[in-house]
C-alpha cells in the first residue's frame, strides 16, 4: 500500500514538473506570432534544423528565415529551450543596439558560455564586464596588430605551400577540405598574433601533405583537439534543449570535456609562463596575452572577498576562460568568412581578376612582401569584396540582448528578462534594404562614392553586431581578413567545380557545406 502511494506521489510530481517546465520554458508568450514549441526541441525539429536524435542538419539562419516568411518581421523563436523575440527591420536593430540601459548581453549567451567558461567577457555584464573589458578591449585595436602583418602572411604562405604539395600538377586537383584548412590557418594565426603561441597545426598539415599526399590523414595537436572538444560542447549545450542546471551537472561528469579542460589549462599555463618570462614588467604589454597576464591579481583570495565593483585585475581562472572565449569568438567566425570568400569568388572569376589588377596597380606583385599594412590602404576594391562577403555570408544570426528594463519595440511590449534577437543576416539580404539584388555577390554595390548601395540604412548592415556589446574583435578581424585575401590573391586563383554547391553547415558559425574548388597557382 505504502509503495503504491509513494509511486503515485512520484508520478504526480513528475507530471507536475513536466507541465511546469512546459509552461515556463515551452509556451508561446503574449500575442507575438510563433510556432508552438515542442518540449526540449523548441522550434528546431519543426523547422528541419535538427533531426529527432538532435543531429544538426541545417543552420539556425534557415530556420529563422522560414519563420520570417511565415510570420513577418517580428516573431518568437525557440532555439531548444532558449526563447527569444526576433526583430527583422533595421529600425528595430537601431532601437536594440542604441539603448544600452535597456538591452544588455543576452542571458542565454551568459548561461551557455557560462557553463564552459563562466568568466569570459562574452558571459559577463555590469562591473564584472567592465573589469574584463579594461584588460582586453585596448589590446584588440587595429594598431596593436599592424606590426604582425608578416606573421599573418607567413601562415598564409604555409597554407599555399601545402596546397602546392597536394594539388600542383596532380590529377586529383580538386580541394574539398578548405573549411578544415582555413580553420587550421586561423587557429595558428590567431594564437600566434594574440598569444604568441604556435599551435603547430599548419606544420602538421604540411607534414601530412608531404608524407602521404593525403589531406584526410592529419592529426590535430593536443591543444587543438581539446579546443574542438570544448567548442563542440559549447555547440551541444546551446541546442540540446536541456535546462542549464541539468547541463551544469552533466558537464561535471562528462569525462571527455573535463579531460579537454585539463589539457587546455595545461597549455594555457605554459602560455602564461612563457609570457611572464619574455615580458619586461616595466614595459607596456605588447600583445593580448601580455595585457591579460599583466592584469593578474596579486592576491586572488583577497580580491575574491571584495564586492565586484571594488575588484581589480583578473584571476588565473578568469584568464583561462578569457583565452578560451576569445578563441571561440575569433577563429571559427573568421575562418568561415575566408571559406565563404573562396566560395563566392570561385563562382565569379572576374572578381578575382579585378582584385589582382588592383594589387598590380598598387605595386603589389607576387614577390611583394606585405610587411606594412599601409601598402594595402589604397586597395579599396578588396575592402568592398570583404564587406560584400561579410554581408552575404551566413556567419551568425545577429545580436542577442536581454532586457534590463521593460520597453516597447514597434508596438510590441517587452518585459525585463525577455531576450531579443536583431536578425542581422536576414536584414543584410532583405530586398527592402538594398538596391542591387541582395542575393547576389556584387562587391561593386559598395565601390566608389556613388555606388548603388553605399548609402544603405546603417543598421541594415551589422555583421559584427552593434552598440556597446558589438564584436570586440572586429578591427582585428577586418585586418587579418584583408591580409589573408590579399595574400591568397597574390598567388592563387580559385576555380569553380561541379561539386561546389555551397549550402549551410552549422558549426559555431555557419560554414559552406559543399566547398569544392580547383586551386590554380598563378
Ligand atoms: C569575421 C569575423 C567575426 C565576426 C563576423 C564576428 C561577429 C560577432 C558578432 C555578431 C558578435 C555579437 C555582437 C552583438 O551581440 O552585438 C560578436 C561578439 C564578440 N566577438 Fe566577434 N566576430 C568576428 C571575429 C572576432 C574576433 C577575431 C574576436 C577576438 C579576438 C572576436 C571577439 C568577440 C567578442 C569578445 C565578442 C563578445 C563581445 C561582448 O560580449 O561584449 N570576434 N562577434
UniProtKB/TrEMBL annotation:
<dbReference type="GO" id="GO:0005506">
    <property type="term" value="F:iron ion binding"/>
</dbReference>
<comment type="similarity">
    <text>Belongs to the cytochrome P450 family.</text>
</comment>
<dbReference type="InterPro" id="IPR017972">
    <property type="entry name" value="Cyt_P450_CS"/>
</dbReference>
<keyword id="KW-0349">Heme</keyword>
<dbReference type="InterPro" id="IPR001128">
    <property type="entry name" value="Cyt_P450"/>
</dbReference>
<dbReference type="GO" id="GO:0016705">
    <property type="term" value="F:oxidoreductase activity, acting on paired donors, with incorporation or reduction of molecular oxygen"/>
</dbReference>
<feature type="binding site" description="axial binding residue">
    <location>
        <position position="471"/>
    </location>
    <ligand>
        <name>heme</name>
    </ligand>
</feature>
<dbReference type="Pfam" id="PF00067">
    <property type="entry name" value="p450"/>
</dbReference>
<keyword id="KW-0560">Oxidoreductase</keyword>
<dbReference type="InterPro" id="IPR050196">
    <property type="entry name" value="Cytochrome_P450_Monoox"/>
</dbReference>
<protein>
    <recommendedName>
        <fullName>Cytochrome P450</fullName>
    </recommendedName>
</protein>
<keyword id="KW-0479">Metal-binding</keyword>
<dbReference type="GO" id="GO:0020037">
    <property type="term" value="F:heme binding"/>
</dbReference>
<dbReference type="GO" id="GO:0004497">
    <property type="term" value="F:monooxygenase activity"/>
</dbReference>
<keyword id="KW-0408">Iron</keyword>
<dbReference type="InterPro" id="IPR002401">
    <property type="entry name" value="Cyt_P450_E_grp-I"/>
</dbReference>
<keyword id="KW-0503">Monooxygenase</keyword>
<dbReference type="InterPro" id="IPR036396">
    <property type="entry name" value="Cyt_P450_sf"/>
</dbReference>
